Amino acid sequence: MEYNIALQFEDGVTGFIKCGDDETVAEAAYRQKYNIPVDCLDGACGTCRCHCESGSYDLHPDMYIDEALTEAEANEGYVLTCQMIPESDCVLKVPSSSEACKVGKSLFKGKLQQLNVLSESTIHFGVEVDDPDALVFLPGQYVNINIPDTKETRSYSFSSMPSAKQAEFVVRNIPNGKMSTFLSDIAQVGQDIDFEGPFGSFYLRPVVRPTLFLAGGTGIAPFLSMLKSLEVSGAHHPINMVYGVTNDADLIELEKLDEVKKNHSWFNYYTCVVSEDSAHERKGYVTGHVESDWLNGGEVDIYLCGPPAMVDAVSHWLDDSNLKPSNFYFEKFLPSEQ
């Protein structure tokens, strides 16, 4: 059996390798021309020390010395890739840049297969990739999509799950924006389109405690990917979400959120709208609609995706509340035209 090993580099680039039975991560990486840090290959130097964020593996302490990896480090999830034999898919944080490890960025070519206007402010599109088996990413990550017939790209998070037949995206329709103009006025189903990636350290970690999702506008996209993945894997802790937008028309994909809520007791969500002209039952910002028990006294993982002002506001809200969550993962986005 082969396992997918995600190598998360310091510069945000993610590489994926296949690791076979009884093969160490270092062996698999070098077989696939990923020059991750390594020196002795004997578990003696510690050069290949990485942190395993998720997955199971065999790392027998008799195979390395304490100077290379202490017992305390091993208990915290640190591994030596020259001795680590995966027993499931894994995510490793590599303390080096992709450039230093000579990891090239993956280019994916495909054809536009879906193009839908979800609202006056939001467009959904899907790309059927030429080699779908090669498209591997972590739920929550993004790619740089080339605007056809230009040298420019735009960064968008997947709204689809990694195993989906099509890569799907939910993006903001910006007046006179180059990608928005292409999607609204020029694009046709069947047209060639390509993208590069995946990128980003904003991705779903193992759900080991109550979790809070905070989404702003089209920042809902990575959470759709996360929720679709969780529908497959399941969740053993509650996952709550507050999804906030500026105007009523900006609320999208609610039927998908409703479906998850209906089918899975571990998920609940609220929506809110900032505009004073809104007829929505909940007005204001996402922080005003977080139930106190969702925070679990600080024993909670918080994921946030939204514009910079929202990220700053949530950070200040946490500080003012004297709440230090177990983990706080966030991603800021800003339309390129701004």
Question: Topology, please?
Answer:
Layout lengths: L2 E7 L4 E6 L5 H7 L17 E6 L2 E2 L12 H5 L2 E3 L4 E2 L3 E5 L11 E14 L2 E8 L12 E5 L6 E5 L9 E6 L5 H9 L5 E8 L11 E6 L3 H14 L5 E7 L8 H10 L3 E7 L27 E6 L1 H13 L6 E6 L6
Oligomeric state of shown chains = single chain
Fill in the CATH topology of the largest domain. Answer: Rossmann fold
Number of domains: 3
Q: What Rg, in angstroms, do the CA atoms define?
A: 21 Å
CATH architecture of the largest domain: 3-Layer(aba) Sandwich
Average pLDDT: 91
Strand order of the largest sheet: 11-10-13-8-9-12
Global outline:
globular
State the helical fraction: 10-25%
Return the CATH class of the largest domain.
Alpha Beta
Question: What is the tally of beta strands?
Answer: 18
Summarize the main sheet. 6 strands, antiparallel
Structural class: alpha/beta
Query: What's the name of the CATH homologous superfamily of the largest domain?
Result: Nucleotide-binding domain of ferredoxin-NADP reductase (FNR) module
SSE pattern, N- to C-terminal: EEHEEHEEEEEEEEHEEHEHEEHE
